[in-house]
Amino acid sequence: MSSALGRIVAAVVLTGALALPFYSFVPANAESAKAFETTSKDDVSSFYLDNGLEVVVIPDHRAPVVTHMVWYHVGSADEEPGKSGIAHFFEHLMFKATKNYPAGEFSRKVAEIGGQENAFTSYDYTAYYQQVAPSALEMVMTYEADRMENLILNEDVVKTERDVVLEERRSRTDSNPSALLAEEVNATLYQNHPYRTPVIGWLHEMQQLNLADALAFYVKYYTPNNATLVVSGDVDLATVKALAEKTYGKVPRRAEVGKRERPQEPEQNTKRTVSLADQRVSQPSFQKMWLAPSYASAKPGEAEALDLLSEILGGSNRSRIYQALVVSEGSAANAGAYYQGGSLDEGSFAVYGAPRGAGTLTEVEAGIDAQIARIIKDGVTEGELEKARNRFLKSVIFARDSQAGMARIYGSTLSTGQTIRDIQEWPDRIRKVKVQDIQDVAKRYLVDSRSVTSYLMPEDGKPDEKVRAEAPASGETQEQPETPAQGIVQ
Amino acid sequence: MSSALGRIVAAVVLTGALALPFYSFVPANAESAKAFETTSKDDVSSFYLDNGLEVVVIPDHRAPVVTHMVWYHVGSADEEPGKSGIAHFFEHLMFKATKNYPAGEFSRKVAEIGGQENAFTSYDYTAYYQQVAPSALEMVMTYEADRMENLILNEDVVKTERDVVLEERRSRTDSNPSALLAEEVNATLYQNHPYRTPVIGWLHEMQQLNLADALAFYVKYYTPNNATLVVSGDVDLATVKALAEKTYGKVPRRAEVGKRERPQEPEQNTKRTVSLADQRVSQPSFQKMWLAPSYASAKPGEAEALDLLSEILGGSNRSRIYQALVVSEGSAANAGAYYQGGSLDEGSFAVYGAPRGAGTLTEVEAGIDAQIARIIKDGVTEGELEKARNRFLKSVIFARDSQAGMARIYGSTLSTGQTIRDIQEWPDRIRKVKVQDIQDVAKRYLVDSRSVTSYLMPEDGKPDEKVRAEAPASGETQEQPETPAQGIVQ
């Protein structure tokens, strides 16, 4: 989004399903399907309004704050061919004037009471949120419900905001070698599914987005029966219900949204590499990815096993990859693994690493390959799985211990084909994963001949070339950039 | 197509724009935009029927034969996402019963008089043809016009013929490592354009093609205003005109077909590789491809220069690559280059090679890279260009010296956004290419950091591994398979 006042041109692309390699290694799915413990099952309620809007209420009275989020079940993977970027572009347009309120009034009201707001677009959903005092909940619901129905779209707003998203692409992608590489990795990993297309859009298609596209998108997708409202925080069910009926209840059901069926992946038979060398790159790095089922698409237990496999293989500094390459051998400045299982359609599994000192990408890659081969051959131990499981559950508890985090978990999960029950039963399913399951998914999905490896290199570099011999002057180049989750455009 | 009698399950995929690497290296565009000399400009006539059908007549009285072709301006690149294979599947359905004739009658009539018939589907067009005695022209026109309008589509024919195309995919693609590799090369080379999708379709999508898809495709695309009729051979304009009005003239214009706008490629920034190792591969080979403009999309003169560049670099055994790698060094069993400029949208340029004896793919690739680098750095000489130009023009004259070849040149060219004038002026444009133009297009398009290299290897092979030391028992493994042009499915 950009605020209507033009002060904030926020632009965090959070791609629910897909990696932005070398950019962020926070597992995106950590926010999906993983709310539990501190909020008991009975605390979460959900209901539908007559117009089809799903409402989820998650009381949390630890602080006098509410988080209000509307999740539209539409993301960039729902875009028509040739119209890439329309989902995110439309998110921007939602901050324009409506029939009832001038542009910027909503944002100004939220700011005036010290609230926070933003929006983001992913492959599978587009969400708008505000965090305010409970007394302001009706105000934000009124404005949010209003723009679900009454947005004013015309040539002027389309032209102005198109320039904003084009600038966003220029500054965040086109000027960033790792972002450019990530785009082409996705376009290579996914051969048929629209996850291959960047959330922000291809430049030449963004330039052509027009008023007709925006109007069609609004009519087709911004209907209450295609959205989930999540309210978490210092609020109760009765209050939210009354307010939701008073505000969103007035929005007519404007379209029927069919089943979300996107082109799926064919069987893959090749090993692929994608390389980018650029003078702006100081720290070479590599990433190896595979298609892997998501929580929504996997057979029972597979996604949970992939999550724990990623934890054991490279989820923390206790992991096999980190211990072997960074701690013992010292060949890598960093290295790890992650699983992205939060998407509606097929997700991915990845390992990554960057050499230290005189190491090469090829050496780091070989070291990681050896760790994968070892798990495929010998599996993992009971003790190792238990420790990893505990670390993993703890990290998720930590990640979700905020009302905004909870709202996000429920919103993203319900927007990607799963249910509240899936979220609540998730810890039990993680607890049921057995050592054999870990070995099985490693063997099934981490197949070298179907992998996509990417190399980010200094200009004219090659993966097997030594990094400049001098050690980095500071720890800076050895740290992973601390960026938020993967693949959201705010 | 498959003949309605089930005897012929022909299945030559002719992908106008794209390579089937390791499969055929005949430049597909050799049949586009290159008819000239023996038929003078005045001999070719064209006109439109009232229903919008374009008719081209190419008299050629050397033999008492006519070639009759109908070219629909629809191919696999026009398919909706998720419906891959429908264009080719539909081509099969066109051999079923119509309201006026039982299934197989058309094919039988052609066979009875010693005629030939077939059909093929490409990325950009679908064509049906018969070659018969002039006296049978009215008969084939009657049947062909009939199935443009009166095809009977029902669950039964769809189900039966779907099994046929699925079997075609199994036998031609899924059981063929080089075909599987070619599919993923295209899916990697084209990041956004539908040329990424195989003409025959992805298996899982072919399995879902249904009656509704077939009906929609027929209505939308099989309308006279979306087709070009080409009649070449022992016939004159007046006769064809009268017969066309009598037969095709009765077919109503059933749909308006808008401009053919497919999603175009974004700027590419990465170097990619695609590898497949399979025990059925005996002769390793590699291919390196780049996106390059087609005749339809290029700036004036660029496509012509790319054609001559391919000739100089690797178009024959006189070419630089062949002379260096096969003749002088002897490191390659074969090696060459080709340009595919016959597509409606962006085409491609490729070099390829296979090692001989103890050579490796990496060595052959390096040898070819050196030849490309030399042209980019030093260009070509006047004498070299002149010889290549003469060879090239001669080979094209030879290729087109048949009435079927002429019909094909006109049909494919007019189905991919070019005109009769483009065809007729093409030799002059080839003659105008200068040495600087050759160097310019090499520099502009053969950029290593935007290339896609594919490796086909014996099981567990690597590009830099030596081939088994023993020489091949026969010349067989050193020969390129002699297959027809690239990318047609008959």
TrEMBL record, chains A, B:
InterPro entries cross-referenced by the UniProt entry: Metalloenz_LuxS/M16 (IPR011249), MPP/UQCRC_Complex (IPR050361), Pept_M16_N (IPR011765), Peptidase_M16_C (IPR007863)
Matches recorded under Gene3D superfamilies: Metalloenzyme, LuxS/M16 peptidase-like
Name of the molecule in the record: Peptidase M16
Q: Known Pfam families for this protein? A: Peptidase_M16, Peptidase_M16_C
Give the Basic and acidic residues compositional bias ranges.
253-270, 459-469
Q: Which organism is it from?
A: Phyllobacterium endophyticum
Domain Peptidase M16 C-terminal stretches = 209-391
Give residue ranges for domain Peptidase M16 N-terminal. 55-200
> What UniProt keywords are attached to this protein's entry?
Hydrolase, Metalloprotease, Protease
GO terms, molecular function: metal ion binding; metallopeptidase activity
Q: Region (Disordered) spans which residues?
A: 253-275, 454-490
Q: Per the similarity annotation, which family is this? A: Belongs to the peptidase M16 family.
Q: List all Polar residues biased stretches.
A: 475-490
